[in-house]
Specification:
alpha+beta; 12% strand
């Protein structure tokens, strides 16, 4: 016999539990367009993994909100945009759900949710440019630049001096001559930052750069062999070291200061993420050496007493605020017909193949926020459908007016509704 706990009883809801008319119509239309059954087998596992990752991002975003209470990230996906309805959409191909009609911060640095959306869309741009360049007979090389750094260095000071070194490097006559030899038509530069607080040496902040070099234009690609690549690397390193010295950074080591790879030998990061992912997800991924800024959020979520993690994330977010994640050299986007879009525009974009499942009233959204249920609503929508979302909303009704729900009740309701036990 099944025991009816408070959560189980509440999730059953009133008989039939009719939703609002427009929700029923929208739900029916969504099922019509996307199909009534979810993906099976491997696809189902991939969908579940994607939603698990998305749920984790919402948890990290809540951590970022606690560290940066006055930032736009603190309001991201919480406040309605222009008093619009809060919408829930489902991407049937990926088996994921997402919100629309909410304000987004578009921060690739401070917001785990927006960072993921923007990175995926930027990755598509990079892939398109690389494919077009290779189709024309070109090749893409990966240039990695790093500088000396110490535990006592402030991140802002390092970035200021590195900016000077980069400016000198790209304008250097010898560097320009080498890139001409390589048939370089442009580059895309991405920033990556790690911190070594947990390493034995702890050299503090370690900002460095990955540059996609679009090469091979008008030159013989057979020249890009091992000895020639080594020659270019040595000559480029000498100029990079000189630029670093002039910019007050000290001389980088030959072993780490500059690396020139053909795009398939970019080390463990590129092997795991692929070349494009290495470019766009540098600060969000879990670092193999040191910690990334989003690792600080994970650390603070796991241990609220880790105040150092919170302080370092705050320093990172404030230092990188307003900076570009990817910087394309002049004219390169136009060459490959890449549309100019802001990070915020990409963060609010809804996938064309997504279908609208339903909408939440203002009071329902307030209830969701009160019980910290944003991720739960998306989980249920993706895995169990809109009808089960309605049951959850009915269960938490009145939360914003003072109705109390402990974590155990909410967790049990979530588990039951995700299990499909009440699927109609």
């Amino acid at each position: 016999m099944t025991t009816l706990t408070p959560a189980r009883t509440a999730c059953n809801g009133p008989a039939g539990m009719p939703g609002r008319a427009h929700e029923r119509d929208v739900h029916a239309e969504g099922q019509k367009k996307g199909g009534g059954s979810g993906p099976l087998g491997i696809n189902a596992k991939l969908s579940a993994n994607r939603m698990d990752t998305r749920v984790a991002r919402f948890s990290l975003q809540s951590v970022a909100r606690s560290i940066l209470p006055q930032s736009r990230t603190a309001k991201c996906l919480r406040i309605r945009a222009f008093n619009s309805d809060v919408q829930v959409w489902k991407h049937h191909e990926h088996g994921t759900a997402a919100y629309a009609g909410l304000q987004t911060c578009g921060s690739v640095w401070a917001c785990p949710v927006c960072a993921a959306k923007v990175a995926e869309r930027r990755r598509v741009e990079l892939q398109a440019a690389m494919a077009a360049h290779k189709a024309k007979g070109g090749t893409v090389n990966l240039l990695t630049l790093t500088t000396p750094h110490q535990k006592t260095d402030k991140l802002s000071d390092l970035l200021e001096n590195q900016s000077k070194a980069l400016h000198r490097f790209w304008r250097d006559r010898t560097v320009k001559a080498i890139f001409k030899e390589m048939g370089t038509i442009g580059h895309v530069r991405a920033s990556e930052v790690t911190h070594g607080r947990k390493s034995p040496s702890n050299n503090g902040w370690h900002p460095h750069y990955h540059c996609l070099m679009f090469c091979g234009s008008g030159v013989d690609l057979s020249r890009f062999d091992g000895p020639q690549m080594k020659d270019w690397q040595v000559r480029l390193y000498l100029r990079w070291a000189a630029c670093c010295l002039k910019s007050g950074l000290g001389e980088p080591s030959y072993a780490h200061g500059l690396k020139l790879d053909d795009g398939t030998k970019a080390g463990n990061y590129a092997a795991k993420w692929g070349l494009e992912d290495e470019m766009t997800k540098g600060h969000t991924k879990k670092a193999l050496h040191g910690e990334t800024p989003f690792d600080f959020l994970r650390a603070y979520l796991a241990d609220g007493s880790d105040r150092q993690a919170a302080a370092l994330f705050k320093e990172f977010a404030e230092t990188f605020k307003g900076k570009q994640q990817l910087r394309w050299s002049k004219g390169l986007k136009n060459l490959f017909a890449i549309e100019e879009t802001t990070d915020e525009e990409l963060a609010t974009k809804v996938e064309e193949s997504a279908v609208l499942l339903g909408m939440l009233t203002v009071d329902q959204w307030r209830d969701v926020l009160k019980v910290d249920g944003r991720a739960t609503v998306l989980e249920i929508a993706a895995r169990s459908g809109w009808h089960e979302v309605q049951r959850f909303l009915w269960f938490i009704e009145g939360a914003h007016k003072g109705a109390q729900f402990d974590r155990e009740m909410l967790a049990e309701a979530r588990s039951l509704l995700l299990g499909g036990e009440y699927a109609s």
